[in-house]
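input
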Amino acid sequence: MDGYEHWDAALCLWIIFLAVTTGVCLIKTHLEETVGETATIHLEIAELDKADQVRITHTRESEKKKLIVQYCSRTDREDCNAVETAGVLLQVKEGALILLNVSSKDSGLYEVTVIRRNNTSEIQQTTLVVNKRVSSRSEPPQIPISKPPQSISKPPNSSERQRTSQKLMLKQPKKPLLSPDMKLLTSLCFLRPSIFKKK
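output
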């Protein structure tokens, strides 16, 4: 066994020793969400509400790690100050980290570190990928349909009204003054006036 193999074996044993003595458990998850939706990261850590401290960091690609949430079981602790970020909710009892109205800037690695009795006990790393919204159907471009202009008629003046009333009078059929029976009776009276004379 040469020097390098001996060093690799010693390093592996040291890492195993640290993991066993500190009791650190590492959980890795992956989540995809769409722009504008709510992303819920389920924390697979038992009894999260009994933790002394919960720290959540967000690391975007090629950027530094940023603390976005810190939960402290006791407010009187000097070594733990509560940290909150708008649009980020940590629900300790439910074991969930909720990100509201996600956008592409919310993509990245979320690391939840749980501290119990001043020792890190669990770490959960969740990679969040926020995808662009894809329209379910492609709608053809709408072509505006123009309506033909409507002609607006101006009100007729007084001379036009007179002409219109005269046309109506001319178009109306002339009613006979006497009915056919009356005409017959009248003609008889004129032709033979002696019929109506008393005898």
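quick obs: The beta strands are 25-34, 39-42, 53-59, 66-72, 88-91, 96-99, 108-116, 119-131.
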